[in-house]
Amino acid sequence: MYQLFYYPRNASWAPHLVLEHLQLEKELLLVDRKTQQQKSATYLELNPTGRIPTLVDGDQIIFESAAICLHLCEKHPEGQLIPVPATPQSATFYQWLFYLTTTVQPELMLYFYPEKYQLSPENSKTMSQAAEQRVGDMFALIDKQLATHTYLVGEQLTLCDYYLFMLSIGQVGLILHQKTMHIWADLCE
Predict the structure, then answer these.
(1) Phi-psi category of residue 85: left, alpha or beta, with phi > 0 → left and psi -120 to 50 → alpha
(2) Among 7, 21, 58, 152, whose CB has the most other CB atoms within 10 angstroms?
(3) What distance, in Å, lies between the first and last C-alpha atoms of the chain?
(4) How much is the pLDDT for 115?
(5) Sequence-separated (6 or more) residues with CB below 8 Å from residue 181
(6) Contact 4, 15 (CB under 8 A)
(7) Which of 169, 166, 149 is nearest to 157 (CA)?
(8) Which value, in Å, is the radius of gyration of the alpha carbons in the chain?
(9) Whose CA is closest to 62, among 117, 3, 17?
(10) Cα(152)–Cα(161) distance, integer angstroms
(11) Rounded to two decimals, what is the model's pTM?
(12) What is the DSSP string of 82-106?
């Protein structure tokens, strides 16, 4: 059984969705960010970054949302959330996964938490506004891809779609990307 240390509307959402998609036995363990539980000595033993999520898979402990998701998808290929390796779909899959994790997600962090990225609090609003513009441009590129494909990688649902959904909802339940809501509605039918 997997143990997922999570917090609602957090980076743990994509791993949670993958666990659900794969219909895997899991225990969800809430890490209360409001009380900084992720900075406790007990949690830091599991995840030295003091961030959420963390997955326990037997003796293996994994942190970082994308790493957790890839681990689950590779361990359970029957879920077909990752394309066959060394195919054009695989290259497209990794392109979008890395775009989401290394371009979009860090920019969203600047947007939601500008005060964590500077020493002068009075610059927070300006930083957040600049990040909002860049995020808009990033989602425009995603919209362009989704205009001609059912899902981000093509015609098959992949981990990238779950990751995009997680990023699109935002930290406060704000819908940042309307096109993703149509994909999610299709999945829930």
Answers:
(1) beta
(2) 152
(3) 28
(4) 80
(5) 168, 175
(6) yes
(7) 149
(8) 17
(9) 3
(10) 6
(11) 0.88
(12) SPPTTSHHHHHHHHHHHHIIIIIHH
**pLDDT digits 0-9 by tens, 27-63:** 999 999 999 999 999 999 999 999 999 999 999 999 9
Cβ proximity of 171 and 10 under 8 Å: yes
Residues 142-169: pLDDT tens digits?
989 988 998 999 999 999 999 998 888 7
Position 174 pLDDT exceeds 70: no
pLDDT tens readout for residues 118-146 = 777 777 777 778 888 888 889 889 989 98
**Short-list 141, 146, 110, 145, CA closest to 128:** 110
| Alpha-helical runs (H) found in 100-123 | 105-112
| 170 touches 176 (CB < 8 A) | yes
Cα 124-127-128 angle, rounded to 5 deg: 85
Question: Residue 177 corresponds to which tokens in the numbers above?
Answer: 């990307």
- DSSP, residue by residue, 127-163: HHHHHHHHHHHHHHHHHHHHHS-SBTTBSS--HHHHH
Residue 153 near residue 89 (C-beta atoms within 8 A): yes
Where is 169: in which H helix or E strand?
helix 159-169
What is the rounded distance in angstroms from the CA atom of residue 107 to the CA atom of residue 59?
33
